[in-house]
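[step 3/7] fold_predict: job queued, chain A
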Amino acid sequence: MGPERSRLRALGVVEEELLGRGWRGAFFGNLLVAFTELAYVFIDYRVFRGALLLPVLRALHVLWVLGVLGLLFARRRRLTPALINGGFVGGVLPFLPIFALAESFMTGSGLIWVPMTGHRLVMLAIGVLAPTGLWLGGGLIAAFALEAGVLWFALGLGSHPGVRSPWEPWVTLIYGGVALTMLAYRVRSHTIELKLREVRAEAEALERLARLFLAVRDATNTPLQTLELSIALLRQRSPESEPTLAAMERAVHRIRSLTQRLGSVDPLLVWREGDESFDADAMLRHLEEDLARELERRRH
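[step 4/7] structure written:
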């Protein structure tokens, strides 16, 4: 049986990948926010004919998000759920006052526009990129949907001459429902995947243990056979040593019985090409190296 192939080593790998996936969602979500807000700095400056308040707020949002990105990048080797969730929320929440101010400014601009566009886009982005926790993403989606409804009625957008969206605010609420459904689907799919990977990790750990048992059993066969032959020869040459030989024989039989019981793990093994014969000592050395690497990884 050749050396075990590199595969999922321990359940800790699953938790590490979970944190890594959350970090990627928070990092690229903030990166998307930075690029979007940077574009809107120039768009708002032109739309509102040089008014600086909203472009300045968006520029400050960009600087804030760049700081969040720097923190996430610096801590990418020491991730925690609080850091990931805080990074994502910190990048998204400033949209709430910025969107409210933008809709308020549009009501006095004399322009024709479709309100709540930003709310819809952000809710969909949350559904796709939010760390896979239903409460966090669902709370953010609910906050943007609630603000959209409040702004619609508080600003009287339903009767505003510049609004060309007769289906609002219901379309925005539908977008919120779609985003929440997307998030729920991601959470459920991720939960199933995590459970499957945990089961796989446990199965692979059992297989590694079975390979260890098999290596120990095969490594003891030759020494046991030597002891059995030696006891038989001594019995012929030194009959007076029978009490000692009987004790040695019982010990050998007990070791033989234990090694045979190790064979009960054989059904856990996945046999591959080339596994018909193997070097038990090499297998034990390989398993010891795997264990040493695993201990080293956990220390760091």
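[step 5/7] annotate
Residues 1-11 have pLDDT under 50 and may be disordered.
The CA atoms of residues 153 and 169 lie 9 Å apart.
exit 0
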